[in-house]
Task: inverse folding
């Protein structure tokens, strides 16, 4: 989720894709949609122009791609965009056209430069299925904050409405979807939709709160809601997705707010509360096997980003970027100042992030190299960079050029 998140848009997509790959392949190339009148959601879109310079435009908008070493910066889409994400094979980027009245989903082929319009979405996450053949999108309902989820089959452009919900995530095997909603007030009500049966089941017991599913989807961690007349329970629980086999982790009297799993599923980070129950953003690290007590890893944490191998976690706060190493339990500040949109490369060797420029209406993309501890400035004015997203092979970064004020979704 999702910079986002790369070639001039030109040739016809159908012939290019079907020539490049067979219909039986899953992520090496996606067949174009049918051109029958019933499939109107697969229209091609206009050709993008070359990236403007500071002398030709005040603030260039669109989607940009740059090599991981900072070279070959180029613009591949010249309209305001949002919710961009790479396909699993790195050939495509899916995103929402932010200027279209219905925020249409655009599928951009990075080899041929062709694009397909796949129809409406809401300005929130666009998620690829693990096999790269479908997209999960949210679509606006009748009420401003009401959404429902759909899948888009990329082989034919057809949509399937699933259920009411705001945001959704695929299971690792692509057979289920976790979702919340359907309104912002119920965004913490996490449930699972079975794509084969259409069955919907809650995650965890009925009284759970702040629930988060483990990366392998075998269990979940959560707090529990308590009536106002009962002493708050700040314990972290771990159990099967159906709420069974519950164990208690040694967190009392701490624990509240969000829970963030490590990619290997061995650790969680959660925020603490003060003695009187006030949320104060202190992050604690805890092993889920119950073998140790919580470890305070920073004075404050606003967001967390684990390395893919779970060896370290980036903590962003009001002062900048702090990297906490699980190997030696040390914390080191690598950036002083406001930052946005921190993301590790797939191999954990580099960190991309955005920081404000000297001009308040600009922001620049930076890359931190773990081995050398060097920080490289990748972009410069007039781009207002946002939401960097690494390609699956870690060779490129896609990011947005935005216009300042920005809509990140219905609940933000």
Result:
């Amino acid at each position: 989720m999702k910079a986002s998140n790369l070639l001039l848009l030109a040739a016809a997509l159908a012939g290019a894709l079907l020539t490049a790959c067979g219909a039986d392949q899953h992520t090496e190339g996606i067949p174009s949609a049918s051109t029958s009148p019933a499939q109107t959601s697969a229209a091609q879109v206009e050709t993008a122009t070359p990236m403007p310079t500071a002398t030709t435009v005040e603030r260039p908008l669109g989607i940009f791609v740059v090599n991981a070493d900072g070279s070959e910066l180029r613009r591949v889409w010249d309209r305001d965009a949002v919710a961009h994400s790479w396909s699993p094979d790195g050939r495509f980027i899916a995103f929402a056209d932010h200027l279209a009245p219905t925020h249409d989903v655009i599928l951009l082929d990075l080899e041929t430069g062709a694009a397909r319009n796949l129809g409406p979405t809401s300005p929130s996450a666009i998620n690829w299925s693990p096999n790269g053949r479908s997209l999960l999108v949210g679509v606006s309902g009748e009420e401003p904050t009401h959404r429902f989820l759909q899948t888009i089959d990329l082989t034919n452009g057809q949509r399937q409405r699933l259920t009411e919900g705001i945001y959704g995530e695929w299971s690792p095997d692509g057979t289920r979807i976790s979702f919340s909603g359907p309104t912002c007030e119920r965004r913490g009500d996490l449930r699972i939709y079975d794509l084969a049966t259409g069955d919907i089941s809650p995650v965890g017991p009925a009284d759970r709160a702040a629930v988060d599913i483990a990366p392998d989807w075998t269990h979940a961690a959560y707090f529990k809601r308590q009536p106002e007349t009962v002493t708050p329970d700040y314990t972290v629980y771990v159990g099967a997705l159906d709420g069974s086999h519950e164990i208690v982790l040694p967190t009392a009297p701490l624990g509240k707010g969000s829970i963030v799993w490590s990619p290997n599923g061995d650790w969680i980070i959660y925020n603490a509360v003060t003695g009187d129950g006030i949320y104060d953003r202190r992050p604690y690290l805890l092993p889920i096997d119950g073998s140790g007590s919580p470890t305070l890893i920073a004075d404050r944490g606003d967001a967390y980003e684990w390395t893919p191998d779970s060896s370290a976690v980036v903590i962003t706060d009001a002062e900048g970027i702090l990297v906490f190493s699980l190997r030696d339990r040390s914390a080191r500040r690598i950036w002083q100042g406001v930052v946005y949109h921190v993301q590790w490369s797939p191999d954990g060797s580099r960190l991309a992030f955005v920081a404000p420029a000297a001009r308040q209406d600009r922001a620049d993309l930076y890359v931190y190299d773990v081995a050398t501890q060097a920080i490289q400035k990748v972009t410069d004015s007039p781009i207002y960079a946002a939401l960097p997203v690494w390609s699956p092979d870690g060779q490129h970064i896609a990011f947005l050029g935005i216009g300042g004020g920005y809509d990140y979704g219905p609940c933000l």
In short: Helices lie at 13-20. The chain is about 0% helix and 40% strand.
